[in-house]
Amino acid sequence: MTIGFVPETSSAAAFLVTRTLEPTEWADMDVPLLASPREVVKDLYARHMPAQPTAVVAAYDPDGRIRASASFGYRTGVVDGWERRNALLSHLRRVIPHDLRLRNPVRTAVLMVSRDGVPGWTAEDGAWMWGLRDACTLHGLRCGSYVTLTRDGWNVIGENRAGRTPNASWSHAHPDPHRADPANAVAAPLRRASLR
């Protein structure tokens, strides 16, 4: 009889790796394109003034009008979508009821992540994309676009659409006096929720 820890199997390791999405996998999902990505980014930026690192998730009605949105700080360096999914789902539940009773989703969720680094896809973005897709499934929403916001500007991953403004450095030039201190991130999500 042997007592000790069971070594991690290759199948368990493979499961963890699958909780991320590559840009090609994202493109194969037929994510609905944003009609005017710059206007969406500007609107979300104006509502939440996201400093780094901040995620902004928003739900849109079929006519393209925003129904609800929320922003929250997040821990950097996470490459597993499980944690990202849980955070997104928690904030979606706070600002909008689920649509699981509908046969087909009618509202669409869009995620904008303000972060440091290059505007293109990274492993952390892959975790966010997996998390967004899974959170949408569990909340009865269509999975919409994933946008990164860096000092270089905004970039809609998988759509090859980008712009220079707004960018992640704006929040430093135009600080939000109501924004919570990053050390006190618990109260921030409730203050940053926007219902209309």
Give the CA-CA distance, first to last residue: 62 Å
Strand content: 15-25%
Total strands: 6
Shape: globular
Q: Describe the strand arrangement of the main beta sheet, using strand numbers.
A: 2-1-3-4-5-6
Give Rg in angstroms: 17 Å
User: Share of helix among residues?
Assistant: 25-40%
- Structural class of the helix and strand makeup? alpha+beta
Mean pLDDT: 84
Largest sheet: 6 strands, mixed
Quick rundown:
By secondary structure, the chain is an alpha+beta fold.
Question: Can you walk me through this structure?
Answer:
- The protein has seven helices and six strands; from the N terminus they run αααββαβαβββαα.
- With 196 residues, the chain is α+β, with helices and mostly antiparallel strands.
- The protein has a six-stranded mixed sheet, sandwiched between helices.
- The protein is globular and about 40 Å long.
- The N and C termini lie far apart (62 Å).
- Residues 173-196 have low confidence and may be disordered.
